[in-house]
Amino acid sequence: MIIQLEQNITASNKEKLNKKLEELNVKASDIVTQHHHYVIGIVSNEIDVRVIGEIEGVKDVFRVNDSYKLVSSKWKVDNTIINLGDGVTIGGKDFAIMAGPCSIENEEQVESIVKSLIKNNVKIMRGGVHKPRSSPYAFRGLGIDGLKMFYKTCNENGIKIITEVMQVSQIDEMIDFIDIFQVGARNTQNFNLLDALGKVDKPVMIKRGISGTIDELLQSAEYVFAAGNEKIILCERGIRTFENAYRNTFDINAIPILKEKSHLPVIADPSHGIGIRKHVSKIALASMVAGADGVIVEIHHEPEKAFSDGAQTLSFDEFDTLVEQFKILEQAV
Ligand code: PEP
Ligand code: MN
Description:
Elements: E1 2-5, H1 11-23, E2 27-32, E3 37-42, H2 50-53, E4 58-62, E5 82-85, E6 88-90, E7 96-100, H3 107-119, E8 124-126, H4 143-156, E9 160-164, H5 168-174, E10 180-183, H6 191-197, E11 204-207, H7 214-226, E12 232-236, H8 254-261, E13 266-268, H9 270-274, H10 277-290, E14 294-298, H11 316-332
Parallel strand pairs: 7-8, 7-14, 8-9, 9-10, 10-11, 11-12, 12-13, 13-14
Antiparallel strand pairs: 1-3, 1-4, 2-3, 5-6
Phosphoenolpyruvate binds next to loops.
């Protein structure tokens, strides 16, 4: 059960509510976010929610029996729109395109990619500076100095940044230089990280775990919300299955299902989703048809020389074509 409180509920009415919940054997947790105050009630027996709804200061009561609650569409019919400022939004009417390299490598690379984004009127650049790599000997990112360089160029050009945070200790040093924190597939169930990201006032995009279910992704999002941050984006990036003809099995089904189950924006990551450059654009376009709110794609001025994930990275020409195709397809859907 979700109990939404009025912003100005008095202490005595809140006390009345707490007493009533205790009487009804409801296990209650207070959730205070940037926007609202909620009480999540867990009940094992049927109760008449009207007796809660009539307490002064209670705005609304919703029955949500799923394992995730605040991220569920069962109580919030309006889709969440993430506002990055300067007219850049995710989850609104515009299809959001985020593009950039897998890893930030150097200033020349960032500058050339920013030019490609500007040319295509794309407002959000991706790029990792903390890279989760399967091998400890692979390139693991430029770290915080790389992020500052990345930020400087983007900031001068009005481009927003999404980049991965791998651990709690990185949040504070990164926060002034990013617009969206990305939680990678290997960290989807790092609950300490999710809790900590719930305490900051910056959007968080959570990727689906490598072998994660849709329900687990929604519960990870619930962690961030329950810790106080409502600005959450979900990302389908492919899962590990028995199929090995491509890097991951991009689960196109997850897009409409997530959109149905949750009010949060859903982004598709076709690059990691299929892992094969010549097919990335097709999966990106399919995601738009499936109802995604946007995509995150890897691009590079010289994909074959990229420090990481070159095999799934689009060239600038391929990216230009994809952006044009999105514009045409958008009319149809
Ligand atoms: C990435 O975005 O480059 C990345 C490492 O993604 P994922 O966590 O989905 O593997
Ligand atoms: Mn990558």
